[in-house]
Amino acid sequence: MNFEFSTSKQIIFGEGSLNKVKYLAPEFGNKPLIITGSGSVPLTPLLDLLSEAEVPAEIFRVQHEPNVSMIRAGLRQAKETHCDFVLGFGGGSSIDAAKGVAAMMTNPGTLMDYLEVIGKGKAIPCQPAPMIAIPTSAGTGTEVTRNAVITSEERHVKVSMRSPMMIPTAAIVDPELTYSMPQEVTASTGMDALVQVIEAYVSKKANPLTDVIAREGILRGARALNAAFVDGHNRQARADMCLTSLFSGLALANSGLGAVHGFAGPIGGMYGIPHGKVCACLLPAVMKYNVIAINQHDDLGDTHKKYDEIAKIITNRSDAAIQDGVLWLSDLAEKLDIPGLQALGVPESDFSVIIEKARVSSSMQKNPVELSDEMLRAILAESY
């Protein structure tokens, strides 16, 4: 068996670890462009630490998930203010935007040269600008992944810019930064993390190293997500969710995802729905139909065993069957107040377009088994 594993040069985890940025930043350059969100997590502690380190900074705010225009605007500000490294501080949107800007700071051409599906999909030739990723939510794991998810305003689809060189140079994961997350964000980002460790575990590109990481993420996420939702200051639950998110990024960066994310890209791009909510309502049906399809193949017995193990882990029952796992995930989404596709604003009349777009996504290619159009439509219908 042959496989490769790539990740950040340095991962710093633990309560209070934000403080380490004052030691790291001077090693990265003279002036960072801080790419951050609208301000739900105060930026002052970070700026104070940079000030202590005598590192001046520029700030670029993102108001929504990154799109082509946003990356262009961030790149323009970085160049005009002579920034030489990037600091992503915030949720997945902020860090993905930071990864896209960091890549374009050192590479020739335009963003469309490197975007998958809608662009030329070229490999980036040059190492991106140095980057520190500091997540303030626990969901995407993008602080250690090799891609940035970017929306095309013209095509109404989310696509990736992808390269092993795009993995942030350093990741600082401080659970204290997630304490102020609202319940709704805790739910959607947490479900995204749980979906990612599950999909990475059963991906056709999974390997023994990603299996170990994903399995631990499934265990921690299943026991912690509802607890973090109920009490945002539950230290153990918040730490476990940060680990689930981190592990999901480590695993998916090296094994890929599956049909849930194959659907989530087009749906998010078409309707502007929070990514985690889409993933949460799709996961039970995807798990169900993946197993149905796997049962039709004699050579996928090991993947079936993985789904059986997932059911036992998430239900905490040694006698649980796969269907019990499907029901547990449906119940969890209900506890977290995550609605179905209809309530999220997805029209049933668009199912054919969604399926067509999902089929060509990179995540769908790594699903453990090929799903027929009839199964894909059934997944959408049962998630409605």
**Helical content band:** 40-55%
Q: Number of helix segments?
A: 15
Question: Order of helices and strands, N to C?
Answer: EHEHEHEHEEEEHHHHHHHHHHH
CATH homologous superfamily heading of the largest domain:
Dehydroquinate synthase-like - alpha domain
How many structural domains are formed by the residues? 2
Architecture blueprint of SSEs:
Elements: E1 10-13, H1 21-28, E2 32-36, H2 44-52, E3 58-61, H3 68-80, E4 85-90, H4 92-106, E5 131-135, E6 147-152, E7 157-162, E8 170-173, H5 183-202, H6 208-230, H7 235-255, H8 259-271, H9 275-294, H10 301-315, H11 322-335, H12 341-344, H13 351-359, H14 362-365, H15 373-382
Parallel strand pairs: 1-8, 2-3, 2-4, 4-5, 5-8
Antiparallel strand pairs: 6-7
Describe, in plain words, how this protein is organized in 3D.
By secondary structure, this protein is of the alpha/beta class. The chain contains 15 helices and 8 strands. The chain folds into 2 domains: 10-177, Rossmann fold (3-Layer(aba) Sandwich), CATH 3.40.50.1970; 183-382, Up-down Bundle (Dehydroquinate synthase-like, alpha domain), CATH 1.20.1090.10. The chain has helices at 21-28, 44-52, 68-80, 92-106, 183-202, 208-230, 235-255, 259-271, 275-294, 301-315, 322-335, 341-344, 351-359, 362-365, 373-382, and strands at residues 10-13, 32-36, 58-61, 85-90, 131-135, 147-152, 157-162, 170-173. The strands form 2 sheets. The chain has a 6-stranded parallel beta sheet, sandwiched between helices. Strands 6-7 form a two-stranded antiparallel sheet. Helix 3 (68-80) packs across helix 4 (92-106). The model has no long low-confidence stretch (mean pLDDT 95).
